[in-house]
Amino acid sequence: MYKVLIIDDEEPLREAINILGDWKGLGVDQVLEATDGSMGLAMLREQKIDLVLVDMKMPELNGSELLQIVEKEFPELLTIVISGYNDFEYTRQAIRSKVVDYLLKPVNRGDLNAALRKAIDVLEAKRKKESEFINRNITLNMSLPKLKEKIYLSIIERSFKNQSNEAFLPLIGADTAGNYFAAGVLRVLNLEQVRRNRFHEDRDLLHFAVTNVINENSDEHFQAFSFASHKGEREFIAIFTMKGGYEEDATFRSLHHMKKLVSTLKELFGIVVAGGIGQPYGDIMALAQSYETAKASLDGIDLLTLKGAIVTNSSNDTSQGKDNPSLTGRMPLIRNALESGNINHAKSILSEFTKKWEASGRFNLGEADRQIEEFIILLNDIATELDAIPERIRGGKDKGLRGLGIGSDFASFGEFERVLSGILDCYGNEISKSLAGNRPSVLENIKAYIDNHYFENIKISMFTDKYFLSREYLMKLFKGQYGYGIHEYVQKVRMDKAKELLSTPDLKIQDISEMLGYKDKNYFSKAFRNYYDCSPSEYRVLLLNGEE
């Protein structure tokens, strides 16, 4: 049996909790009351309390202050917080204190008993110690929701081991015949905007708010449990469990719940969500298939026709037309433009490319995500070769859009295009800075190599491969710096050296030709004539006559 303490300065709320709580069914034999935080703290110090329900707004010692004290003095005590949606600072402390659940005023019977059941489940798990694993993690302050999240994830990822983890199944209702399970996947389309404007940049608080809305309106026959997906902070996974009934009922209630929560998120927080839902199954292990269907439904939503919040349970075709252009195929053109320092030209190439996507008639969310990921990888490869990795991700933990500091919100094709343009800006600016800094030394190295190896067969590809520069860009840089193209400069060095060698009478013209890298004497003579308007022999005569 368990002892519960209600700490609230409002008598009507204490009375309501007393009346609405299924105390007998939960195994609670004592429900005590405290009229403020100070009184509640004194009772905690005097008696062995198993669970506390605490209001966050109270005179003298408020809920936030009380939770901080409880964390230090009673680290094993389970708490349920009662407050309102807009109590931001109170909610923050509730998250930090790892409360079992967060009840919104006015408290209703379903929410109250669901929260109480969570707490009692943890207490029972502690007492029964069903397995060493459960005991070890609970002593490490692992909450029941986190444990359930791990169980669901292992099932979704097909890594759940029946024999070793069978003791966990009662925690998710998988030990009862006749239950149906379905998965939903939700994507917040304006996460960064909402997190900045409504949640003070607090990611944990936003996640807490979203999952609480998803989990609302559960009852003894239909329950929702949700958590943030580890695959991306804007994605949430919802698990729906219906006790008894028919598969058709589970399908209808899951879809209805998804549509309702999408509407509620928009109304309460301005959060715009797109969601996909999978088929319900009587076998908990089939939840993986339900999740994959839900994810495919979400990814298949057409970005070209997306107009705000949407929920779908149809698996749209996520493949793109065979005639769609390849992003990889455009990268050499984009690279040449970036190496030339012309970011605007690179953007025009990208824009022409995306317009073909748009003209294809269908471009879904999943494809947009893949193209963003691929674009970053391709640009990162170029930046790596040019030693121009953006500083933000050079030593940072975060990669991708977040590491680059680029907003990843997009709820339309136009916004998706702006994300790609932002990626290009980030890498393009870094490449331009890197090349501008390295340009003089690169050109000096090339010139020095020609001055010392003019007699070899010098090819421009030697330098483009070594310095990872395009042929056109390198030739333009070299001529701008020295007034000669690379081939022209090789020819100039050879001809200057030829005049120097011809001034030595003992050297035969054939020998001079070979020393300059010409294997054919006649070819050398022709090149010399074209350069100086006289043959090597005629030039020697002029030298002897003192005319040169």
Describe this structure in words.
- Residues 3-120 form the Response regulatory domain.
- Residues 444-542 form the HTH araC/xylS-type domain.
- One of its GO terms (molecular function) is DNA binding.
- The modification 4-aspartylphosphate is found at residue 55.
- Keywords: DNA-binding, Phosphoprotein, Transcription, Transcription regulation.
- With 548 residues, this protein is an alpha/beta fold.
- Among the domains are: 1-128, Rossmann fold (3-Layer(aba) Sandwich); 144-257 and 269-288, Alpha-Beta Plaits (2-Layer Sandwich), CATH 3.30.70; 488-544, Arc Repressor Mutant, subunit A.
- It is 57% helix and 11% strand.
- The chain contains 25 helices and ten strands.
- It has helices at 11-20, 23-26, 37-46, 63-73, 88-96, 109-128, 132-139, 144-156, 162-165, 191-198, 203-215, 247-269, 287-299, 327-339, 343-359, 365-385, 391-394, 400-404, 413-453, 460-467, 471-482, 486-502, 509-515, 521-532, 536-544; strands at 2-7, 28-34, 51-55, 78-83, 101-104, 179-188, 222-228, 235-243, 273-277, 310-312.
- The strands form two sheets. A five-stranded parallel beta sheet has the order 2-1-3-4-5, sandwiched between helices. It has a five-stranded mixed beta sheet with strand order 7-8-6-9-10, sandwiched between helices.
- α14 crosses α16 and α15 packs across α19 (413-453).
Characterize the biggest β-sheet.
Answer: 5 strands, parallel
Strand order within the widest sheet? 2-1-3-4-5
Structural class: alpha/beta
CATH architecture of one domain: 2-Layer Sandwich
At CATH level 3, the topology of one domain is Alpha-Beta Plaits
CATH class annotation of one domain: Alpha Beta
Number of strands: 10
Question: Strand content of the residues, in percent?
Answer: 5-15%
- Count of individual helical segments: 25
The 3D shape can be described as elongated
Helix percent reads 55-70%
Mean pLDDT over the residues: 86
Low-pLDDT segments, ≥5 res: 138-142, 316-322
Radius of gyration: 36 Å
Distance between the termini: 116 Å
